[in-house]
Amino acid sequence: MRSDERTAHDLLEFGADCAAIDCRGRTPLHYAAGARSQVCVALLLDAGASGSAIDDLGASPLYYAARLPSDQEGLLRCLFSHGADFNCRFRYGGWTPAHAACATENHTNLKTLIDLGADFRLSDNWGNTPLQIAVFKENVEAVLCLVSHGASTDSADQLG
């Protein structure tokens, strides 16, 4: 999806449904968040799009924003200010946005999630915490961020 703010504005002005879903259950907000378009996200939210919309995979727009490899602090804060659930779980695996952020090379999204109140102690379906994902991905900055915020270093997944 292109990040074309003018087109999004015009479509909304002429009555486009900001809650429309595609064959995957994704809304325009899912696509705008995944395309890193804070302006389009804000336009859609202001037009009434749900910040907590969940697609067929159980992913919210916030999940797609959190897993982006670049700093998305403004986008994450915009979604948060419109009621996005920072602890929603991806249907397959049970990852939260914090898990997704730990799987990228960018720890800034994780720090923003924590600052906004995301629970980084939640485990996925296999017992992995975001810290364990960060360690597995060798994401040193995310590990340091989590430990400095009090993440438990002695939790075990289902394999021990």
UniProtKB/TrEMBL annotation:
Q: Which terms are listed as keywords in the entry?
A: ANK repeat, Repeat
Please give the InterPro entries that the UniProt record associates with this protein.
Answer: Ankyrin_rpt, Ankyrin_rpt-contain_sf
Its lineage reads: Eukaryota, Fungi, Dikarya, Ascomycota, Pezizomycotina
- Highest taxon above the source species: Eukaryota
Can you name this protein? Ankyrin
| Organism, scientific name | Mytilinidion resinicola
What SMART domains has UniProt attached to this entry?
ANK
Q: Where are the ANK repeats?
A: 24-56, 57-91, 93-125, 126-158
Keyword Nucleus listed = no
